[in-house]
Amino acid sequence: MPELQPYATMKRPLEQERQGIFVAEGTKVVRRLLESHFAVASVVLPEKWLDDFRPLLEARPEQITVYLAEKKFLETLVGFSMFQGVLAVGKIPPPVSIADILQKSPTPRLFVAVDALTNAENLGALVRNCVAFGVQALIVGESSSSPFLRRAVRNSMGTIFQLPVIELAKLGLRHRFKTKPHAIKLTLAECLKELRVRGVRCIAAHPHTDKRILSQADFSGDCCIVFGSEGDGISRAVLESCDEVVAIPMPPTVDSLNVGAAAAVFLYEAARQRAKMG
Ligand SMILES: C[S@@+](CC[C@H](N)C(=O)[O-])C[C@H]1O[C@@H](n2cnc3c(N)ncnc32)[C@H](O)[C@@H]1O
Fold this sequence. Notes:
The chain has 278 residues and is of the alpha/beta class. It is built from 12 helices and 10 strands. It has helices spanning 5-8, 13-19, 27-35, 50-58, 71-78, 98-104, 120-132, 150-155, 174-179, 188-197, 236-240, 259-277, and strands at 21-25, 40-45, 65-68, 87-91, 110-114, 137-140, 165-167, 201-205, 223-227, 244-246.
């Protein structure tokens, strides 16, 4: 059935990005998608879940195609085993510019950016932390994975539907841009420079610095906290585009924290300082 094709391409994420769609998986995440302002194309679920989902489906403004399929059939279609067999296809929102985000975010603004973060599970966990601690927008660097990958959406527990996202497309690589129709043409380093021009302090979370530790950092004004990749951390170009570099102090026997854990610690501190001001 061609209508079920998005569910059959779940192992080909670039194809889904090109079509501007993503797949949500599991009852909680699908429920949160249906409660959100995101456009939804279709839902697939076993008949036993239909009554549970009916009120949410009926409350939607758009026409959503609902397929009833048993878990076994879906597992054959998607190519992996699932816990509940409930899936939905949503549409990635159109691109937002930095100017839009600045205009819509009350001060003091709090943004997060990720540089070359490719692990979808970590990206999803980071998104969840962003929403938990009041981040107003996430900037996804040109060499990072999309937060709309199935595993990222699942690990975010659907919080991605509450967080404005700016995805950056690699300049000069036309094919890459074409795969992300919702991306904007700026590198992360350029984007951070633009934020700084507009008064947003860019703070790199970086384990290898003795200049400033987290408890000495000031998150009271507009700021954007930048996190790096699992392997190489933050690239030199991105580090040089930041105003300052801040570390969570660690014993010499530990190289670094997982990026999701580091983001939770940083964002808790930022939220704590801001709550005191309020
Ligand atoms: C697994 S770490 C990267 C480790 C990488 N090998 C490096 O040397 O930078 C992933 C990201 O989490 C954040 N992070 C992890 N531990 C941190 C720490 N102790 N202080 C500040 N940021 C940290 C940084 O943004 C880092 O780029």
